[in-house]
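Dear support,

I submitted the protein below through the web form. The confirmation email said the job was done, but the results page showed an empty box. After a refresh the structure appeared. I'm attaching both so you can tell me whether what I see now is the final result or a partial one.
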Amino acid sequence: MNMRTTITLAVVALCGIGLAMQEAPRKQGGQGGRGGKGGRPPQDGIVKPEMRDTVKGAMYADNWFAMYINGKLVAVDSIDFLPHNVVAIDLLPEYPMTIAVIAKDNADPKTACEYGRSIGDGGFILKFADGTVTDASWKAKCVFHGPIDRDTAEPRVRTEPLPENWFAADFDDAAWENATEWPEDRIQPKQPFFEHDFKGAKWIWTGDLDLDNTVLFRRKVEKPGAARRWTTKPDLDTGGPTPVR
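What the results page shows now:
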């Protein structure tokens, strides 16, 4: 056996030892090194939610909104006024799902006008990937109206406090009116709207698109037979008052 052959055999032997050492942890840990296919086995029967359990949602408000689901704040428009924007989120749905929204048009709290003495208009639209959309079946309530009689020379406003726990799942909205659907050409949404899928959803507000400046919306979504795959529940407290804008 010459020197070259001896060196070759030594290298092959060392490679074999290295491969065996790499394989050892895999065999000890089971398939995939995680104690089972696709990750660790459930601990004490706990099943954690995954992104495949979520649904995507998109909302557009003229001009601002905050949204609660089952009493928890899940989305706040990051832009108060301009430019108009679409807020897109991932939701972990639990049915029945009560959606509550506060939407605000740009309006001075004292005069209800914008740009000095101009009257603006509102509008809100929503679509979730589970088929939930805004339409006339939603409930609506105005809490800030003006300028009364469209008088911008001596503007007056009418306001009322937010109903207590208006965003809670068990709040009684039976006395609220149904939302009014408005045509897209009346709202005149900006470019971000056309970059998202709102097919099937309707623009909603109250019956007065111009003078009702702050509107509350509610809708309860039922999904008979929908089962929650995961078993975990959050321990942190995410409750709180309505965001102030």
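Response: this is the final, complete result; the empty box was a page-load delay. The longest strand covers residues 212-221.
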